[in-house]
Amino acid sequence: MNHSQFLDLLFDNQDLGYRELQIKTIPSVSPDSIIGVRTPCLRSIAKEIKGSELADDILSSAGHSYFEEYQIHAFLISLEKDINKCFIELDRFLPYVDNWATCDQMIPKIFSRNHDLLIPKVYDWIDSDHIYTRRFAVKVLMDHFLDDDFDVGYAELVASINTDEYYLQMMIAWYFATALTKQYDQTIQFMEGRCLDPVIHKMTVRKVSDSYRISEERKSYIRSL
Question: Which CATH architecture best describes the domain 126-225?
Fold first, then answer.
């Protein structure tokens, strides 16, 4: 499959109703660049082309014309089975990610078996000046380091992020709301001590209130803060 045929395939799977929804929910992306292809279809295409010359072309491209191309780029990285290659591709791609969907749906499975190698990269990504690289780093900490490998120092790292970028603020709030469901005793101190930016603190309270994984008693207490 060449690139022209690839784009034809994307447009053949266009869902105009879904496109309108995406335009509303991903405002940082130009509407003209959104075709409107559902995520399961994009994941299937990524699996189909993995290892092909087309996939190599997508991975080597600095930028793309369509949102769906960025999505497939992210899904191809997520399928990478070599952790070092995965890091190389991420470092090349992350600076071009311009929306929460591409950032959040890029979930390399290889990460779960390489926590020791992953943490130094997380620190590198959090130091980035790029909003979605930092958001990606926080999501990695949320996805992989809130269970057996939790360290309160990681929560302190997230709390120390100073930003007025909405999509990064929201990810920090999501991190702490999730941490409060998994590591309550060690993370409630961040709420009690007003360690978070006031805006992020309020976002966290709202996310906790919407959670099904935390007791009503704890919700009530957190709302009181």
Answer: Alpha Horseshoe (1.25)
